[in-house]
Write a structure and sequence with these properties.
heterodimer; A: alpha+beta; Ubiquitin Conjugating Enzyme; four-stranded antiparallel beta sheet; 4 helices; globular; B: mainly alpha; Herpes Virus-1; Four Helix Bundle (Hemerythrin (Met), subunit A); three-stranded antiparallel beta sheet; extended; disordered N terminus; ubl conjugation pathway (chain B); zinc ion binding (chain B)
Chain lengths: ~150, ~575
């Protein structure tokens, strides 16, 4: 079974994630695949996502930690750096990945991205345009989407 | 034509003989493939300053040369800065292998250079007394099983190996590999790579370093010919970008397209783009449309009968088959679906390819086609000449030295001639792109250009004729011919004359034919025998080949320059001798 020869690092990371979770973040491995995590991130306060509960999936590829984990939003979200499939534009998930980073640091970075959208480096062209043209209105849409899709019901 | 005579005069000149023989001896001492390059021939110094200029402005580098230069640069930095070679190499890579820039930056602010590059001076001292936690595998290891870059962030060997191997297999980005600790920017150099990587990865890494020396360095580029492993180092600021690689590929160092003097890179890019876009269009238009007999716009017939009405404003009604006016058509000529007139004419052979071409002549694309066809023809002639040259070298020269009982070393002049033919075809080809972009309204320039081009073509034909047909008789002859030495003199002379003509042509076109002014008292083109003026030892003349020389000194005293074609006429004549325009 794949889980039997799981690297010590992954086991240790998992244990720490479960015993000392980061504030506003929970990540638990799936029962049949220890490399697949169900993740929940709370929308940061003072962001348009406040009050929302966002579900993500996180997968540790075979090469992990030499290669970055694969992370994707499952909950619909209105954000210039996240596209409609939930893919995330974040440097540490791509070229800035380092094996000294962890699941925890990745999820904290994603949480920070929710607090500080970056429309200058967009993944979703339309949302980024909206953000730059009329930030107030875009933030309203983001709040609306949070209420509609991420109310945790 | 008097130009003809001039060309033949050349054969009698002793000076050319001298050139030829001095060239011969020099070439004998030259080794191997160097002989087949233009401009790289040290023995040709008797010919023209131009060649020397070409010689100095670039160097072809083999892989060994590259390694040697790279080592030298590293040694220089390492000695002057008193740092390890490994660090010198890192610095050079960061500053794109510019030794001066490294010096400048380092001596201006060593600390800031170290920070940006990631070369830290004070690593954390290693302690062997205790175990450390590896930040990647989360295991504790004794210190002697761990290592760190200059920053002192320790990771275990096994994680380092994984880190380094992943990075090397991701491509040349591994040259900028930094410490795995996220905010730390300490650079990982080759020493550390050699300590950690597999042999295969070490080999890859060192190739990336070698490539970086060429690719990051602004003064060097790889030869773009497929499979060629040479690089060319260029002296920045040189005017002439054409370089000739040891693999015999000639290319423009600036845009890496094939060599294209006298046309500049922008024009080449435009022309190539036009060819790729236009040739497709052109082929389609030729295959699928006919020009309206009246307004010449191309018309595609995609349905319906033979009675065509051109779109407004033309509205001309005609028959698609014979392109005659529809008013001449009707039931008696076959009606809407056939045309008796066309059938009869076709049987009489009127609608042959030439007819079609003549029809197309009025098409708006005709001008482009005109230049493109000639450009493409010269291109294929050049390919053909290259093949002939190879055949000559591999087969014919052998045969010739047998029949004429002369050593092959005495046959260099034939190779020279063929190389010149190849080069001339190349230049001639690009003159057609030049002609296409030469503004229509500059009549003087156009006329002068076409004249020069025509002369170039006939000069080249003469050389080609001599190197092909006349040579053949000597190859086929049964025994040594006493005329062979005369032939040698003639062909060497023609080669030299043609080379001069083309070099001057290139220079004249490169300066935009600026000598051809619209006003009358500009430097003029006079029909003096330039061969005679070129008789001196060095052959350096401001001449356009065998027929025209532009003299700057005689001004407007003894001649007048034709406003239309710029020909310098004698004062006594009232009508231009060339274009018959009145003074």
């Amino acid at each position: 079974m794949a889980n039997s020869n799981l690297p010590r690092r992954i086991i240790k990371e998992t244990q720490r994630l479960l015993s000392e979770p980061a504030p506003g973040i929970s990540a638990s491995p799936s029962e049949d695949n220890m490399r697949y995590f169900n993740v929940m991130v709370l929308g940061p306060t003072q962001s348009p996502y406040e009050g929302g509960v966002f579900k993500l999936e996180l997968f540790l590829p075979e090469e992990y930690p030499m290669a970055a984990p694969k992370v994707r939003f499952l909950t619909k979200i209105y954000h210039p750096n996240i596209d409609k499939l939930g893919r995330i534009c974040l440097d540490i998930l791509k070229d800035k990945w380092s094996p000294a980073l962890q699941i925890r640091t990745v999820l904290l970075s994603i949480q920070a991205l929710l607090s500080a959208p970056n429309p200058d480096d967009p993944l979703s062209e339309n949302i980024a345009k909206h953000w730059k043209a009329n930030e107030v209105e875009a933030v309203e849409t983001a709040k609306e989407w949070t209420r509609l899709y991420a109310s945790g019901a | 034509m008097d130009s003809e005579d001039d060309m033949h005069d050349a054969n009698d000149l002793e000076s050319l003989d001298d050139d030829f023989y001095s060239g011969e001896t020099g070439m004998g001492s030259d080794d191997g493939d160097g002989d087949y390059e233009f401009g790289n021939n040290a023995s040709d110094d008797s010919d023209d300053g131009n060649l020397n200029r070409q010689q100095e402005n670039y160097t072809v580098l083999s892989e060994d040369d590259i390694r040697q230069r790279q080592e030298e640069d590293i040694t220089r930095i390492s000695t002057v800065l008193s740092i390890e070679r490994d660090h010198a190499c890192i610095l050079l890579r960061h500053y794109k292998w510019d030794v001066d820039k490294v010096h400048e930056a380092w001596f201006a602010n060593e600390e800031s250079v170290r920070q940006t590059v990631g070369l830290y001076e004070n690593p954390v001292a290693r302690t062997f007394s205790r175990e450390l936690l590896c930040g990647i595998c989360f295991e504790r290891h004794p210190c002697d099983r761990m290592c760190a870059a200059s920053c002192g962030h320790f990771f275990c060997y096994s994680c380092w190996r994984g880190y380094v191997s992943t990075s090397i297999n991701d491509g040349p980005g591994c040259l900028m590999l930094r410490c795995p600790d996220p905010p730390c920017g300490a650079i990982i150099g080759q020493n550390m790579i050699n300590l950690l990587a597999s042999n295969e990865d070490k080999e890859k890494y060192s190739r990336y370093i070698l490539r970086s020396y060429i690719e990051d360095n602004i003064t060097s580029k790889w030869c773009p010919a497929p499979g060629c492993e040479y690089a060319v180092d260029f002296v920045m600021g040189s005017v002439n970008f054409d370089v000739s690689c040891n693999c015999s590929h000639n290319f423009c160092w600036n845009c890496t397209e094939e060599a294209h003097r006298p046309v500049d890179c922008t024009m080449v890019a435009k022309w190539i783009l036009k060819n790729s876009a236009e040739s497709e269009n052109m082929n389609w238009i030729l295959a699928n449309s006919k020009p309206c007999p009246k307004c010449k716009r191309p018309i595609e017939k995609n349905q319906g009968c033979m009675h065509i009405t051109c779109t407004p404003p033309c509205k001309f009604e005609f028959c698609w088959l014979c392109l005659g006016a529809w008013t001449d058509h009707g039931e008696r000529t076959g009606g809407f679906y056939a045309c008796n007139r066309y059938e009869t004419a076709k049987q009489e052979g009127e609608y042959d390819e030439a007819e079609r071409r003549r029809e197309m002549a009025k098409n708006s694309l005709e001008r482009y086609t005109h230049y493109y066809e000639r450009w493409a023809t010269n291109q294929s002639s050049r390919q053909k000449a290259l093949q002939d040259l190879q055949n000559m070298q591999n087969v014919q020269l052998d045969k010739l030295s047998d029949t004429q009982s002369q050593p092959e070393s005495q046959m260099k002049f034939i190779t020279e001639a063929w190389l010149q033919i190849v080069e001339c075809r190349r230049v001639l080809k690009w003159t057609y792109a030049y002609g296409y972009y030469l503004p229509e309204n500059e009549h003087g320039k156009r006329q002068f250009f076409e004249y020069l081009q025509g002369e170039a073509e006939s000069g080249l034909e003469r050389l080609h004729q001599c190197a092909e047909k006349e040579l053949q008789t000597f190859i086929d002859s049964s025994g040594p011919s006493k005329d062979f030495n005369d032939f040698r003199t003639k062909l060497a002379g023609l080669t030299s004359v043609t080379r001069n003509y083309f070099e001057n042509l290139v220079r004249a076109l490169e300066t935009g034919l600026n000598d051809v002014g619209e006003s009358g008292n500009q430097p003029t083109c006079s029909r003096s025998s330039s061969i005679k003026s070129g008789k001196g030892k060095n052959g350096k003349t401001r001449t356009i080949g065998g027929t025209t020389s532009r003299s700057l000194d005689d001004g407007n005293h003894s001649h007048w320059s034709c406003e239309s074609c710029t020909f310098a006429n004698t004062k006594s004549s009232m009508v231009c001798q060339v274009c018959h325009r009145r003074r």
